[in-house]
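I would like you to help me understand the sequence and structure tokens below and explain how sequence relates to structure.
___
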Amino acid sequence: MFDAAPHAPALSQSAEFEATLRALGQRPHRLADGSLVLRRRLAGLPVALVSRARIDPATLPLLLADAGLSRRPLLLNPDAPVTLPGALPLVTPAHVAELDLTGDLRAGLHQKWRNRLSHARRQSLRLRHEILPDRADHWLLAADARQQRTRRYRAWPAALTLAYGRANPGQARLFTALHQGHPVAALLILLHGASASYHIAHSTAQGRAVSAHNLLLWEAATWLAARGLTRLDLGPVETEHSPGLARFKLGTGARARPLGGTWLLWPPLTPRLRLRDGHDRPKGSI
């Protein structure tokens, strides 16, 4: 499913993510082209999931047949826009922000972002950079769990994040800003191959007042670039529902790139379905 264009795989397609799942006793499958397939249950029905792979519609049926997956419902979240004949589109493409770490990072900063970074540097913040401690009660993981409950969304559970750190020593990097000795913001970055992903971030009211998150992200990006990493995936940008967070991510000079939406492929069902147009499907935004 990966196309011929050079593009580092997303976190959910990486060898590091596969190692994490195997450490937890799961058995993901690699297709012949290297795409990672997860086995899940949806309403009790066994389904296969391919998330953020580069999909070639011409080879997809053969790859699934060779893997014995041609009769199982398959959810696809392609890493780039694509049309999948015979599949049912469920969600239109969202966008992710990707920061190129190979150029002049400072030159890419938007002026307001640069101003917030300068503001943070005047606040007597102390920065701490470490490998994520293997502690289920770590304050950042607890804050992330509370935020998921409050905002009613689901992301990685703390157990999966901790397992990533154990399965990939040194690849879960925690950047913390302290003000008067107390943590006011933190950012967790997961490294995978030549790329990294913005995984968890949290800032207190005091942290926001002193622009701590700008300083943390800048420190993380420059640290990654100095070690030869080429891309930082900043995650989804949603200008309609989270305009402030979108501005923060894009203010780094990151590029918004469309993904491929969500598709359902189930051969016993989808050939008999007429693909709906985009007017009645949930939409990603930018």
User: Anything to note?
Assistant: Residues 1-6, 272-286 have pLDDT under 50 and may be disordered. The two ends are 26 Å apart (CA to CA). Residues 149 and 233 are 24 Å apart (CA to CA).
